[in-house]
Design brief:
2 strands; two-stranded antiparallel ribbon; 148 residues; mainly alpha; Arc Repressor Mutant, subunit A; 6 helices
């Protein structure tokens, strides 16, 4: 499975919000600057994140976005699925029709891998990722998440 830019950027932006949880609303411009993600791309992602109720928004001076709940309560899988990222490793999109209309020999293998990846990502919270990153980077206050 290859996570697309959409999924990686959504996770990165949500990790940025997680780092600032409890500090009020964060503007997309601030996230864009810190993480090097296009502002227009963030706007598209946050529309989806808001619809899935992972973030809340406020308008006007001091407006922006914040997590809808604690970073420890939001899994990486929640974020990835909220932006319609596919989590399927089968060639047939789990339809079991990839070999002349029938299930191919390796279908169960790739289906199982997809389920294991989902399980793994469902067990990792945004809070855990931020905490682990801080520990490995001497608790730096400025964190740029790359390579996610």
């Amino acid at each position: 499975m290859r996570l697309t830019t959409k999924g990686r950027y959504a996770v990165t932006a949500m990790l940025d919000l997680s780092l600032n949880y409890g500090k009020g609303s964060i503007t997309l411009a601030d996230i864009s600057e810190r993480q090097g993600i296009s502002l227009s791309y963030l706007e598209q992602l946050f529309a989806r994140l808001r619809r899935k109720e992972l973030v809340t928004s406020s308008r006007g001076p001091g407006g922006g976005y914040k997590l809808s709940r604690s970073a420890d309560e939001i899994s990486v899988l929640d974020v990835i699925l909220s932006v319609d990222e596919k989590m399927d490793n089968t060639a047939c999109s789990s339809q079991a029709n990839c070999h002349e209309g029938e299930q191919c020999l390796s279908h169960e293998l790739w289906q199982s891998l997809s389920e294991q990846i989902k399980l793994y990502l469902s067990e990792i919270s945004l809070g855990q990722v931020v905490s682990d990153h801080k520990k490995s980077n001497d608790n730096s206050n400025v964190i740029k998440f790359s390579g996610i």
